Every structure is written in structure tokens, then in C-alpha cells.
Amino acid sequence: MKKIVLSQDDKQPRVLQSVRQITSLPLEKIAHLEQFEKGETIIAFNSQTEILYVLLEGTAKIYFIHEDGKRSIIHFVKPGEMIGELGLFGTEDYTKDVIAQTSCICLAISLSTHKEALLNDVTFLQEMNKYLVEKLLNRTERFSEGLNYPLVNRLAAFILYTEHEGIYHEKHTEVAEYLNVSYRHLLYTFEQLQEAGYIKKEKPTYRIIDRQALESLAKDIHS
Predict the structure, then answer these.
(1) For residue 21, what are the domain limits?
(2) What backbone phi and psi angles, to 5 degrees, belong to 218?
(3) Do 36 and 110 fall within a single domain?
(4) For 110, which of 29, 39, 125, 150 is 20 to 30 Å away at the CA?
């Protein structure tokens, strides 16, 4: 992890533009940037974190760790989403595993230093309420879509949601569990997409060949 002081980062006007509205407090005084490489841990499972993150660039995965050590993906974090926000309100004592899926840049705010100021900032609380409601609605819609859409549609949406520069690179075992389907059913559906010419297998990845066709299949499905 690389820590970057905001005032010394030439990229800050661009990367901060989308998050300045989350608080009336000056970000340059309460926050810094943290850069994570692909595969690096942003927050470790079962740890007590004192940092609120906002993902600015890249993507990350959130894993739940079962008692037997097995990991299950429960969410893919995209730019604009928060990491560790539940700890701010004391509703999550111990965290889940958050791993950088690609190179990531996060806005980081120390809760041990600025928690009280944030909880007294009306702008921040309004933005947080809006964010949590939207997060709940998205999770509800994703659950509903899992019951009503065929796997081929949901997989197309998932590929588009997780691809990076036209390349899809996720483990079948984790994806089957995330989409709540059998491993065999998932492989069969990948074969369907390959035969249709929408994707091409390039071990150990898949390359998107016909993005427009995948988008047509994906409809407005949330992943």
C-alpha cells in the first residue's frame, strides 16, 4: 500500500471530483489517498479498522470467510462505493476481507481522528443515508433478478460488470456461488456465449468479442 498526501498528488482534482460532495469538511485536511496493487488486502477479515475508504479508481472484492476457512464473494466494489462504512456506526465490529481486484486508489479518512466530526456533519449524514438506501435497493434488485432472469442474462451482466479492459478473469467456483448456480450450469452457459461468438476463451481468461450482444443480453440487470 502506498500512502499519498492529497496536497502532493497531481491527480487529485480529477480523482476527488466525484466525492467532494460527501462532506462539508475539507478533504485535504481530513483525508489522504491510499494506492493498492492488484491482489493486495485493503481491509483484512476479522480486524478492527479505523479507516473509512471511498474507492476512486479500480475495483475490489468483498469476501465473507466461513468458519471452515472457505471464502464467498458477497460484493464487487466499484468506484464511488464506500468500504468500512458500517464500522462508522458501530454496526460491524469485525470486518470482511476486501481485496483489490485491480490496481486501486482509495480516499481514506481516519475514523479514530475524524469520526466525531463526520457524525456531526449534516452533509455527510445526508449523503451516507442516500448511499446506504441505494446500496440496499441494489442488493434487493439483484436478489430479485436472480429469481427471475435466466443465467445467460445474469452471466452477461456479470461479465460486463467485472471485466477489465475487455478481459474477464474470475474463478468459476466463486462465480457459481455468487450467482447461486451449479458449477456445471455455469460452464454450460459460458460455452453458449462462446459458441454465439460473444466471448473467446484465452486461458485462464475470456476476451469480450461482441460487447453489444452482451449488453443486449444483460438488459438492466444489477451484478
Answers:
(1) 2-122
(2) -70, -25
(3) yes
(4) 39
